[in-house]
Amino acid sequence: MRISKRVTNTLLVILLAALTALFILPIIIVLMNSFKGQFYISAEPFKLPSPDTFVGLENYISGIQKIGFFSALGYSLFITVFSVLTILLFTSMASWYLARVRTRTTKIIYYVLIFSMIVPFQMVMFTMSKIANVLHLENPIGIILIYLGFGAGLSVFMFYGFIRSIPLAIEEAAEIDGCTPPQRFFYVILPILKPISITVAVLNAMWVWNDYLLPLLVIGSKYRTIPVAVQYLQGGYGSRDMGALMAMLVLAIIPIVLFYALMQKHIIRGVVAGAVKG
């Protein structure tokens, strides 16, 4: 019995190691090729840089100059940070109200938000672009409101499940002590929401930071985020600067990978806690 369990654990470790290598390999290939000359990227994509193919930081310098990387980084940081903060604030408040005020109307609102999670973006993108134009949302501040709309479904779903697991007696005690509804939320409920808030923040930050289509449709080339700016390394007739492209991809993933690495221990904890009740 013990031998069988040991074999099973060994096979599981091997399988997980293989899956880890499978996911990490593309990142390693991009990193290797970011230090090669453009010709060698196409000719020898899977080989380590050699003295003949190594070009140092040339690709990074070229890419930063060509796409205006620091400007794009500023727009990406602004949009991502404030979109995530906006989503956290408004969806947590909405979830608290929907979880505590149990009426037919709140149930309908909740299920409409859940339904929005399964609607493909392609079905609404042209209508959304037109509305954004009419409402003058074609700027870094306006797109934050659009992200709030698209991110509300998943965020409300996760917050709602977590709040349902919080004993109502805690809020009743605060109400007896004279807390108003806003005070109950900000002083009692919000601190308890920390685990699920971190989970929601990580998931939305990864989505907003890496999003290409929505910024392209709404704010276009005027306010280029990093995914949109990187696309401009592709020239006419299919030509592209592969060296600079690889280098910019490496720089683009560093901030979100660091953020995820710092917060990843809270993700499973928040997901499990939010699944206690639905």
In whole angstroms, the N-to-C terminal distance is: 38 Å
Task: Count the DSSP helices.
Answer: 13
Shape: globular
Q: Mind telling me the CATH superfamily name?
A: MetI-like
Give a short overview.
This protein is an all-alpha fold.
Describe the fold and architecture.
The chain is built from 13 helices and no strands. The chain is mostly helical and 278 residues long. It has a single domain, classed as MetI-like (MetI-like fold), CATH 1.10.3720.10. Helix 5 (104-116) packs across helix 7 (140-164), helix 7 runs antiparallel to helix 10 (194-210) and helix 10 (194-210) packs antiparallel against helix 13. The radius of gyration is 23 Å and the shape is globular. The mean pLDDT is 86.
What order do the helices and strands come in, and which of them pair?
Elements: H1 2-33, H2 38-43, H3 58-67, H4 69-100, H5 104-116, H6 121-134, H7 140-164, H8 168-176, H9 181-192, H10 194-210, H11 213-218, H12 226-231, H13 242-274
Write out key terms for the chains shown:
single chain; MetI-like fold; 13 helices
